[in-house]
């Protein structure tokens, strides 16, 4: 596998409302632990649309891995121009920095938001341009990723398209592993 799409929840869907929420550390570490073996196994590109939350955190993880010397590229393909225009300022800044540092950036529609068709086209584009999907998703908490997850399930019926899901249990496992890796955890 050379190309993977990564997506998941927006921050507010996870109850995260601040850029410095400690839970972001656990989400990013879980993403890192899932992506690293794929990169070591030949993954070359991570594709995101750049939406706030899991996708921008994925971008940060990829940029960190690149700094560590891993050969991985980040492509950002928003569904339309200025998707960040209605976001809170800290998320706008994060997004603009991310598109500046990405290996490739190209809006799928070279115009502003016009309608839901742009999101549907984006989902289809990501399925056709990648070989698998990694998604932070909980079947019991649908939210925004449910649209692309459903589309990916249908796509996988006729294509070799693995869908790797990060669940709340996976996040909890990362929290526990990081706690146990901390020497103070074992101190009396």
UniProtKB/TrEMBL annotation:
Record Pfam families: YpsA
Superkingdom assignment: Bacteria
Name of the featured protein: Uncharacterized protein
Species name: Pontibacillus halophilus JSM 076056 = DSM 19796
């Amino acid at each position: 596998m050379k190309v993977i799409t990564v997506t998941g929840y927006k921050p507010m869907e996870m109850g995260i409302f601040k850029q410095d929420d400690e839970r972001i550390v656990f989400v990013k570490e879980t993403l890192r632990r899932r992506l690293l073996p794929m990169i070591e196994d030949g993954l070359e590109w991570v594709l995101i649309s750049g939406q706030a939350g899991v996708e921008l955190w994925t971008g940060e993880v990829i940029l960190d891995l690149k700094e560590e010397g891993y050969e991985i590229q980040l492509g950002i393909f928003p569904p339309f121009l200025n998707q960040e225009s209605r976001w809170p300022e800290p998320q706008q800044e994060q997004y603009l920095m991310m598109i500046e540092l990405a290996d490739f950036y190209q809006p799928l529609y070279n115009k502003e938001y016009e309608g839901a068709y742009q999101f549907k086209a984006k989902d289809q584009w990501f399925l056709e341009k990648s070989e698998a999907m990694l998604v932070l998703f909980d079947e019991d908490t649908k939210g925004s990723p449910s649209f692309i997850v459903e589309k990916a399930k249908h796509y996988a019926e006729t294509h070799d398209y693995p869908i790797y899901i990060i669940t709340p249990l996976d996040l909890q496992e990362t929290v526990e592993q990081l706690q146990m890796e901390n020497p103070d955890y074992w101190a009396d």
